[in-house]
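Repro:
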Amino acid sequence: MAAPLWLSAVVLEELYAGARPADRRVLDRLEHDFERAQRILVPNLTDWVQTGVIPSRLGNRGYEQIGRARLTNDALLR
């Protein structure tokens, strides 16, 4: 039996951000289908707090400030 498929709101945001106008319709349908199935994962308060903590800890180990900012979405997906 296959496990249910979920879509992260973070991934959806990245897909929209990188999409060409011609791809928008496909993404709208993807969003609609996952929303209808109630299978979109949305970060909560704890997720956002940890998203700040993780890059901060990495920054204290030598990552420059810009590098830490780029880790935000990756930290949300952890």
